[in-house]
Amino acid sequence: MRRIIIPGRNCWTVEETADAGVLVDGRAYYRELYRAAKKARRYIVMTGWQFDSDVSLLRGEDLDEARGGEARLLPMLDELCRANPELHVYVLAWDFSLLLAMEREWMQHLLFNWTTNERVRFRFDASSPLYGAHHQKLVVIDGVVAFSGGMDVCDCRWDDRAHVARSPLRCDSGREPHGPYHDVQAVLTGPVVDRLTELFEARWAHSGGGELRLPRVSRDDVGFSASVPAPPGPVALSRTFGKTLLPPQEAVQEVRSLYLDAIDAADRFIYIENQYFSSRAIFQALVRRFRAAGRPRLQVVLVLPREPEALREQLAMGVAQVRLLRTLEHVARRTGHVFRVYCSAARDEQTGVDVHTYIHSKVMVVDDGFLTLGSANTTNRSLGLDSELNLSWEARAPDDAVARAIRRVRVSLMAELAGLGGVVEVAPLARADARWVEFLDAVAEAGLHRLRPHPLETVFDQSPLLKSLEPEELIIDPEDSVLDESLFEALRSGEDGLFASGIRLLSRWLVGAAEERPHRAILPAGSDDEGGRFH
């Protein structure tokens, strides 16, 4: 397999790690986040798609670690600041769409900024393009440890690797317990954390929060307990940013290039687990690879949710997803490749009905020589519009330490979602040979474990009465801003309107500040040749 990771093309930078691990599912991530936060000396910074103030990071037997202290997110941050006068907390959340208003905690600006210690600072980031979202998930503590991947700290995300059909621990904010939920996060230490710290500084400044200087704190107590060790050595950081004019943000599409390059390089297999599959670019890349003359036959395995989570997504994203997947199945069959889509479920012992695990992770493995995980879905918007952050590792030889570590991660994830355990059951997953998919098919068809064949149907397929209402296309997964940015800016009101922004730009020019550029951490790779944080 040829090299995939190319700085300046499909990643921003490649940085060394001192140690890294993969945290699988909310219990592992929330517990490690709690432990790291308790050790914080100078700062905790967090950015994400969503935060909820009263999410409990510790549950069940893990609560013993709290020893009577706070385990809920915001009360814990407040408690830490009150105990340590040098600690500062910065929380940056996407200023979400009105479509999500009923699903979000209200009055968060007041909850975080006015009911807690003054050193807890919370901001909404409204700098994304029209119809875009800030979707990067990143936590950095003291510049020495960072967490990034698919997980936000919010309601309805916690679960453990058992994914049982019913669990009283999957209860947030007084709600009824939610269903099984699968996700993946990474924890990292070493020089890579410096660049992730820069990324948060850039995001905070770009949102209007002002310039931050977050130093690396000298500490000798940094450690974590991972679900699976991450590959050793350097890690690549890839980003997506949609283009905006005000504030100025150039388009960055490193994640898009990363996915397409990885698909094109595949010689044996591609394994993907993701929340959605609706990207036209990834669909086309797979079709090209299936049709490529003289290339080896591929086995492509996807694990997706049984259906999108919300009704609006079922009506739009679900329709596009099923059409693309059915077409890929057809093309693979005609070209001699293998293409399978599975979902994961637990049998409810009380009702005998399958309870499906919601797949929220964003993972791709190619030939056990390349691994990427992060925030980016295999959707149009994650490749061109939303802000995203992926971490990637690549082996230099077919069976070196990195390749073996990538295989361990893949097998661990697949065994969990398939409901397999023990050396004998897992061995066929590790081989990933020509009989790999035959084995998965047998497991899925038997229905004795967790793996299920994905039905590849929409809500319209399930009801003939709805079939006539099936939409041809809805604007829910654009790759670019739906309206031209200049028009969007003209429609914005108040101090963010085009006229007011023009006055601000004129004023800055008059005082000699017109040459200021965005922070290098949000510029396209190669744009930071001066090397300074701000220039």
CATH architecture of the largest domain: 2-Layer Sandwich
What's the CATH class label of the largest domain?
Alpha Beta
Radius of gyration: 23 Å
What is the helix tally? 16
Count of DSSP E strands? Answer: 21
Distance between the termini: 39 Å
Main sheet characteristics: 11 strands, mixed
Looking at this structure, what is the CATH superfamily of the largest domain? Endonuclease Chain A
Binned, the helix content reads 25-40%
Strand content: 15-25%
- CATH domain topology of the largest domain: Endonuclease, Chain A
Unreliable stretches (pLDDT < 50, length at least 5) are 482-515, 529-535
Shape descriptor: globular
Structural domain count? 3
Mean pLDDT: 87
Counting helices, strands and paired strands, the structural category is alpha+beta
Structure write-up:
With 535 residues, the chain is an alpha+beta fold. It has 16 helices and 21 strands. It has 3 domains: 212 residues, Endonuclease, Chain A; 188 residues, Endonuclease, Chain A, CATH 3.30.870; 35 residues, no CATH class. The strands form 3 sheets. Strands 1, 11, 12, 13, 14, 15, 16, 18, 19, 20 and 21 form an 11-stranded mixed sheet that branches. It has an 8-stranded mixed sheet with strand order 5-4-3-6-7-9-2-10, with helices on both faces. Helix 5 runs parallel beside helix 6.
Layout: helices, strands, pairs:
Elements: E1 13-15, E2 19-24, H1 25-38, E3 43-48, H2 73-83, E4 88-94, H3 108-114, E5 120-125, E6 138-141, E7 145-149, E8 181-182, E9 184-189, H4 192-206, E10 228-229, E11 235-241, E12 252-253, H5 254-265, E13 269-273, H6 280-291, E14 299-303, H7 311-315, H8 317-335, E15 338-347, E16 354-356, E17 358-359, E18 363-366, E19 370-374, H9 380-384, E20 388-394, H10 401-418, H11 423-431, H12 436-446, E21 451-453, H13 459-462, H14 464-467, H15 485-491, H16 498-510
Parallel strand pairs: 3-4, 4-5, 8-17, 13-14, 14-15
Antiparallel strand pairs: 1-11, 2-9, 2-10, 3-6, 6-7, 7-9, 11-12, 11-20, 13-18, 15-16, 15-21, 18-19, 19-20
Helix pairs in contact: 5-6, 6-8
